[in-house]
Amino acid sequence: MHYIGIDLGGTIIKVGLVEDGKVVDVKKLDAGSKYGLMPRLDFIANAIDNLLLENNISSNELGGVFLAFPGIVNVRSKRIVSTNAKYDDAPSIDLQCWCCEHWNVPFAIDNDARAATVGEWQFGVAYGKKNVVMMTIGTGIGTGVILEGKLLYGQHYRAGSLGGHLIVNYQGRKCSCGNVGCVEAHASSFFLPQIIQENEFLSQNFRNDIANYNFKELFAQAAAGIVDAKLVIENCMDVWSAAIVNYIHAYDPQVVILGGGIMKSKDVILPYIRRKVNALAWCPDGKVEIMASILGDDAALIAAGYYFFK
């Protein structure tokens, strides 16, 4: 059976055709997330239609359409509950109706980081594990949690998905969610300009050039010996490490998975974070495995089938 997975990222929307835990084909669209979801729906629908046409699949052969959303989602009512500076019109949209009108197939939705966690748990590096935390690092920071072999949701579908909004500095930077000192506010791509500009230990020239920096560039500069870049990177890795210690203490996982495009620098990130977390986490029964995603950007797409056959 084929499924459609849609991953609404902050900068890129990925639309994938999925079969047997693998992405058969994928289309990528500019997100334009600050302009809302409604203006993108026709483009997403066209991408789905093209995927079906190009792969000779009729809607009768489609098991369902799954959407991974960067916000709080009620998986039972299949509605988006709350957003955070991305696709802010989404709670007013009946996506199940949109899906039915276009393809007349089942529709499912979940938080994007939770969906990525499902992908790694069912088809990736955490296959066979019963207690898993995944942290996705990108425009924002998200998490998903598997506890005793079940997805963690909680009373209002927030449990396990707000790891980017745990507090790592109660006197810190104001986050886009309205809280102060969130993990996301201190170590995400969205806040990178502020992170650099407000760091008094960096040279003025480096701080003046914030428009040219992203994590890919910073890791490259750090590898080339640029001290300012190394300071920024290590500061962010310290924040991610602190967050992971919190996740370990809260959820007691067998493994913590790190995902997102930033893991192209996993050779730097993993050893650093493992050292920090092993030194700080209270784990008398043994260290928690910290691993990189093996499904990469496809993790949330690959999860699509799970939401229909589970």
UniProtKB/TrEMBL annotation:
Q: What is this protein called?
A: ROK family protein
Entry coiled-coil feature ranges? none
Family membership = Belongs to the ROK (NagC/XylR) family.
- A Pfam family of the record is ROK
InterPro entries found in the cross-reference section = ATPase_NBD, ROK
Native species of this protein? Bacteroides clarus YIT 12056
